[in-house]
Amino acid sequence: MSSFYEQKTGMRLYPGTLNVELPSPYSLPRDVIRLEANEYGGRVSVSIVPCRIFNRTAFLLRTDQNEQGKGHHPRNIATDIRLRDAYQLKDGDMVEIEFL
């Protein structure tokens, strides 16, 4: 992931995310970290929410369109390692995410 995410989160994120399906609707809190499309020359703005997974600092990434129910991006968790490899995850595995 680009240095734009690192500037916002303080963490060098692994270039890839873990797509997650939450068991119930989750609306973003008011105090999210924002990466605006015009900041990085992109087409979508992203809300970044600190969380923990496997007792690691991580971030939920959600585009504005996805938050409005119109987007096509999955809900993603990003951290500094490839979670699938580090924890031998496969499609359909259950994981616990703690929002901070």
Q: What does this protein look like?
A:
The structure is a single chain. By secondary structure, the chain is α+β, with helices and mostly antiparallel strands. It has a single domain, classed as Riboflavin kinase-like (Elongation Factor Tu (Ef-tu), domain 3), CATH 2.40.30. Strands 1, 2, 3, 4, 5 and 6 form a 6-stranded antiparallel sheet that branches. Strand 3 and strand 4 form a beta hairpin.
Which features characterize this protein?
19% helix; 100 residues; Elongation Factor Tu (Ef-tu), domain 3; six-stranded antiparallel β-sheet; alpha+beta; 6 strands
Summarize the structure.
19% of the residues lie in helices and 29% in strands. It has helices spanning 3-9, 37-40, 64-67, 83-86; strands at residues 18-20, 33-35, 46-53, 56-63, 75-78, 97-99.
CATH architecture: Beta Barrel
Helix residue percentage: 10-25%
Q: How large is the count of helical segments?
A: 4
Q: Could you tell me how far the N terminus lies from the C terminus, measured between alpha carbons in angstroms?
A: 22 Å
Poorly predicted runs are: none
Strand content: 25-35%
CATH class wording: Mainly Beta
Mean pLDDT: 88
Number of β-strand runs: 6
- Which structural class do you get from the secondary structure elements? alpha+beta
User: What can be said about the biggest beta sheet?
Assistant: 6 strands, antiparallel
Using only C-alpha atoms, the radius of gyration works out to 13 Å
User: What is the count of distinct domains?
Assistant: 1
CATH homologous superfamily, by name? Riboflavin kinase-like
Order of helices and strands: HEEHEEHEHE
Instruction: Describe the global form.
Output: globular
User: What is the CATH topology descriptor?
Assistant: Elongation Factor Tu (Ef-tu), domain 3
